[in-house]
Design brief:
The chain has 18 helices and no strands. It is mostly helical and 400 residues long. The protein is globular, with a radius of gyration of 21 Å. Keywords: Membrane, Transmembrane, Transmembrane helix.
Length: 400
């Protein structure tokens, strides 16, 4: 009963935090910035979870696993719809190069040093240590564009620059998802071949569900009927993935991408229907993810400063490299790296999925580092983004 009351309270808070008034950057800039990331719900989950006060126990979290899978599947479907293959083909190649540059530099800056640290300070097998470090690098490679979106909505940033930053943060999702698929293939089963089979099964499941949703929504005009079919299809993705013990996130991405590719005119209506539930579902998911934070492993706390520092440096250098590649194609701010510090919720989804499918000491350490690091990076991003809004200093006239 206690777990049910907590869950209902969080669901009500998620609806309140999804209010357009709270997210209006022009009216309430401070509140909008605080509500946009949703990391307050991560803190709530960490405080109420078994690692801290224990309001929600381990048994409660086990019972709520289908809800987590449903949330991960929903996030995946929305990501897949955003990564529409037909629209991606219209983007110039330099845009993909720029996104890969800022994500890849941060990935290398974090994964390589931390892999060496894990190998030298623990007795983990080579593949396990490299897999954990790679997942840390994948989480570090991701950025959120909500500061840029709030910036141009409030009039503090040019719209073209804000949209350009948001585009790069959307495209870097592919790096994180690819590393997650590789990590699950190597670690989610007894052998890499069997793990690859499970990842392929998740993708095939998502493609079949996407094609089914496209078939069922074809020709539908009633909004209520369309919404019911859409939500039922998304629930099917998460539920089937949870039953088969495969990645709900990857299945959702495959579902959304398939739907975007073959869905025809109904795709826009499906996306609009999901958009009504996107924000509350994301906030509830972030809360449940936060409940898995233990925070009692000293090794994780020792690695946390290195993770945050290396990611910060990697994003600054990667942003400069990305701007060099796409300066002639996108109107990017001069200090692009400072706009990429915020980590976003997909990083939490990656490590939560890995923790659920590959439970163990290392996966818990990786999860704790990324979860606490996301909060620290959000604080750093709020200060770093001010440098993006400041005009670059010009050298005095007459100086060499």
């Amino acid at each position: 009963m206690q777990a049910l009351l907590v869950f209902l309270a969080i669901a009500a808070l998620s609806l309140l935090a999804s209010s357009r008034t709270l997210l209006d950057a022009a009216r309430l800039p401070g509140v909008a910035q605080l509500a946009a990331s949703g990391l307050l719900f991560l803190i709530f989950g960490a405080l109420l979870g078994p690692g801290q006060t224990g309001v929600l126990t381990l048994q409660d979290l086990e019972s709520l696993r289908p809800v987590v899978a449903l949330g991960l599947g929903t996030v995946g479907v929305i990501l897949g719809l955003n990564l529409d293959p037909r629209l991606l083909r219209l983007l110039p190649r330099v845009v993909f190069t720029a996104a890969l540059a800022h994500a890849g530099v941060a990935f290398l800056f974090v994964s390589v040093p931390l892999a060496a640290v894990l190998l030298l300070t623990s007795e983990l097998p080579l593949a396990t240590a490299v897999g954990g470090a790679a997942l840390l690098g994948a989480a570090a490679s991701l950025s959120s564009g909500h500061f840029a979106v709030l910036g141009y909505r409030s009039g503090r940033m040019e719209r073209s620059r804000g949209l350009a930053v948001a585009l790069l943060t959307i495209l870097d999702d592919g790096v994180g998802l690819g590393v997650l698929a590789l990590a699950l293939a190597l670690s989610a089963s007894a052998s890499p071949a069997e793990g690859l089979g499970l990842v392929s099964l998740a993708m095939l499941l998502g493609m079949m569900c996407g094609a089914l949703i496209a078939f069922l929504t074809y020709g539908l005009k009633d909004p209520a009927e369309l919404m019911a079919v859409t939500l039922g299809g998304v629930a099917l993705v998460g539920g089937a993935a949870a039953y088969l013990r495969v990645s709900a996130l990857l299945a959702g991405v495959a579902c959304g991408a398939t739907l975007a590719l073959v869905g025809g005119r109904a795709v826009e209506q499906v996306a609009r229907a999901l958009g009504r539930f996107e924000r509350p579902a994301y906030l509830v998911l972030v809360f449940l993810v936060g409940c898995h934070l233990h925070g009692q492993d000293m090794d994780a706390w020792l690695l946390l400063p290195g993770y945050v520092t290396l990611r910060f440096v990697g994003k600054i250098l990667g942003g400069a490299l990305a701007r060099r590649y796409a300066a002639n194609m996108l109107e990017l701010p001069p200090r692009l790296g400072y706009a990429l510090i915020s980590q976003g919720g997909l990083a939490l989804c990656l490590v939560a999925e890995y923790l659920l499918l590959v439970p163990g000491t290392l996966s818990q350490q990786v999860f704790d580092i990324v979860a606490v690091g996301a909060i620290i990076n959000e604080v750093l991003a709020s200060r770093a983004f001010r440098r993006v809004l400041e005009p670059p200093r010009r050298a005095p006239e007459g100086t060499a």
